[in-house]
Structures are given as structure tokens and as C-alpha cells.
Write a structure and sequence with these properties.
alpha/beta, binds pyridoxal-5'-phosphate, Aspartate Aminotransferase, domain 2, Aspartate Aminotransferase, domain 1, 2 domains
């Protein structure tokens, strides 16, 4: 078995235990004589899989009863449209632009109403989170939208914005289940699972029940209405069945690891190994304002593009893969999601130290 240390931003590393279990169950899931991939989503065996996945997620995140959990498709990007189509009752929403994903959501929302950019960190290549203590929140805004962890730039909101009483909607794709969350602070939380939870093809939406209604943007397709999915237990049509099954296994793995508080502690410890090195290195440096650093995505540069490319190549050859930064930013980025073991980061830092010694 030749596993690498995979620092991909997404689809990304999954817990080996989960992959092994899935492999063991590939031909015969729980005595059914078939793989979960081959199973009717209306079967008893599958109903149990999705019910347990939801129950375990509710447990992990402490999701109150007045929130629905939906397992949908279309990726996080489909939510850029679904959110305004379903939630813009007044036709107004405020967006905080902290990177490319927030910007795309903002641009999509403009198709369905008046979307206002009320803050942005574009002036410094999205290397920080703007001050959100006293924003010009629109009086008639249906919600304030944030991208909580900026996968490409490596920033994270460590305090939520003051929305002045307006509903908060958050894209948590790249920090999903990385730390405890107070769900009651949000109207809607969503994320594509391929960053920190499971295989691409599933997006999880956690939405407060009173926000789900038939009153949607005119012409909204049936498949893009939260109410349809909520009323049908995420099975209005065939759900991304195998993906949900893997997510369910990851939820159980997280519970076994001690839940989200334990994960947060582990993630802080793990990220510190890399950040401490970056702060002391003569060659590499982090690109994000310290107080806004993400625990999940760590971008860094040498300051020399050729040297960056040489580093990425050497790292790949040594078994540290997918370290190239996003094409819009350059440099390097190590995504160190829940399933990245701390040894992976320690070994990466050893490798970086050796590279630094031979290049300074
Ligand atoms: C990856 C990502 C997206 C886009 O996800 P898709 O599932 O590819 O649509 C959106 N938001 C964030 C924060 C992401 O990291």
C-alpha cells in the first residue's frame, strides 16, 4: 500500500480507517449481498444509512430540532443560486467578499435580487478578514452571507460578523466539522463535503425550519427548492447515495475521535507545527495576516516563483503531493484537513527545513 501525504484542497484526504471499511463492505454491505452503490435508495438498508448519517451529524454539531439537515447535490456552487432563490424574500442580501467563492456567490445572487457587497478584502489579495463589527448592513437585507473559511487564501473568521440582527448564511465547505459550531447563530450553514468530510457529489445544508417555504423566486426549479428536499427527507429523487454512506462513516470516525472539540484541539496543534515553522523560516513565509489564519488551508511562498516550483516538484517526489497553490494565487498551499495526520505535517516541516538548508 503506497499512500502519499495528500495536501489537496479538495477532493481531499479521507481517514484511512473509513476507506478500509468501505473497501471491506464493497461487495457485500452488512449481509445484503450487494454494494451500497447497487442498492435502492428506497430500501430499508439504505434508509438506515441516511438516518444514521443525519443522527450522527446532529449529534456531532449539536444541531437543534428546529433545523433541518439536507443532503443535496450540485456542489457548493449550486447553493450560490439556491440561497437567493429561496431566501431573498425582500429581494435584498448583503455579501462579505473574502475571496473567490464569496465573490462567485455574490455574483450569482445578483441574478435574483439586489446583492450588496458590504465589505471586502480584495485590496490585499484576500489575505485578511475585514473588520465586521460595524458593517453597513442593509435595513431590508434578507441575510448576510459569508464564506467562513477561505480555501484558496487561507483565511478564517475567528469571530462571526455582527449582522445587526439579520440572518447569517455561511459557506463552511472547507472548515466543516473542524471545530465546534453554535448552529443557533446561523440561519443556514452549508458546505460541499469534498473538502473535509467525504467524496465529491454531496452538499450538506443545515437550515432553520422557519426559513423553508414555498415562497421562492418565480420559476425556481423544483430541484432547487429547499422545501421539496426537506419534505422528502433528502429523497425527493435519488440522493448521492454512496457519497452519503461515506459521509456517515466519517461522522462515526469523528465521534470515535472524541467529537468536534477533540478535532479542534488536534487541528490547532497540527496547524501550529506548520505556522511556527513558517514564522521562523528564512525561506518560506505565510501569506495571511496572523489573526485570520485558517487551521485547514495554509498558503505560503518563498518569494521566488522558480524556487516555489522547484519546491513543489521536490516535495512531490518525496511523497508530499498537491502542494501547489491555487492557480490564481501561486506559491504553495498545504490543506491539512481533519483526516491529515499530525505526522504528515511534521514530516512536511522536516522536508521544508531540509529544503531551506540547501537553498539559503
Ligand atoms: C470548493 C469550494 C466551493 C465550491 O465547491 P463545489 O462543490 O466545487 O461547487 C465553494 N466554497 C468553498 C469555500 C469551497 O472551498
Amino acid at each position: 500500500m503506497a499512500r502519499v501525504y495528500n495536501f489537496s484542497a479538495g477532493p481531499a484526504v479521507l481517514p484511512e480507517e473509513v476507506l478500509q471499511e468501505a473497501a471491506a463492505e464493497m461487495f457485500d454491505y452488512n449481509g445484503t449481498g450487494m454494494s451500497v452503490m447497487e442498492m435502492s435508495h428506497r430500501s430499508k438498508a439504505y434508509q438506515q444509512i441516511i438516518d444514521e448519517a443525519e443522527a450522527d451529524l446532529r449529534d456531532l454539531m449539536n444541531i437543534p430540532d428546529n433545523y433541518k439537515v439536507l443532503f443535496l447535490q450540485g456542489g457548493a456552487s449550486q447553493q450560490f443560486a439556491m440561497i437567493p432563490m429561496n431566501l431573498m424574500k425582500n429581494g435584498v442580501a448583503d455579501y462579505i467578499i473574502t475571496g473567490q467563492w464569496a465573490k462567485k456567490a455574490y455574483q450569482e445572487a445578483q441574478k435574483y435580487g439586489k446583492a450588496n457587497a458590504i465589505a471586502s478584502s480584495a485590496d490585499k489579495t484576500f489575505s485578511y478578514i475585514p473588520d465586521c463589527t460595524d458593517l453597513p448592513v442593509s435595513e431590508d437585507a434578507d441575510y448576510v452571507y459569508i464564506c467562513e473559511n477561505n480555501t484558496i487564501y487561507g483565511t478564517k473568521y475567528h469571530t462571526l460578523p455582527n449582522t445587526k440582527g439579520k440572518l447569517l448564511v455561511s459557506d463552511v465547505s472547507s472548515c466543516f466539522l473542524s471545530e465546534p459550531v453554535d448552529v443557533t447563530k446561523y440561519g443556514l450553514i452549508y458546505g460541499g463535503v469534498q473538502k473535509n468530510i467525504g467524496p465529491a457529489g454531496v452538499v450538506i445544508v443545515i437550515i432553520r425550519e422557519d426559513l423553508i417555504s414555498e415562497e421562492v423566486y418565480p420559476g425556481t426549479p423544483t430541484m432547487l427548492q429547499y422545501k421539496i428536499h426537506a419534505d422528502n427527507g433528502s429523497m425527493y429523487n435519488t440522493p448521492p447515495a454512496y457519497g452519503i454512506y461515506i459521509c456517515g462513516k466519517v461522522f462515526k470516525w469523528l465521534k470515535k475521535m472524541g467529537g468536534l472539540e477533540a478535532m479542534q484541539e488536534r487541528n490547532i496543534r497540527k496547524a501550529k507545527v506548520l505556522y511556527d515553522f513558517l514564522d521562523s523560516s528564512k525561506l518560506f513565509k505565510g501569506t495571511v495576516r496572523k489573526e485570520d489564519r485558517s487551521l485547514m488551508n495554509v498558503p505560503f511562498v518563498t518569494g521566488n516563483e522558480e524556487l516555489d516550483a522547484e519546491f513543489v516538484k521536490a516535495a512531490t517526489a518525496a511523497g508530499f503531493v498537491n502542494l501547489k497553490g491555487h492557480r490564481t494565487v501561486g506559491g504553495m498551499r498545504a490543506s491539512i484537513y481533519n483526516a491529515m495526520p499530525i505526522e504528515g505535517v511534521e514530516k512536511l516541516v522536516e522536508f521544508m527545513k531540509a529544503f531551506e538548508e540547501s537553498h539559503t
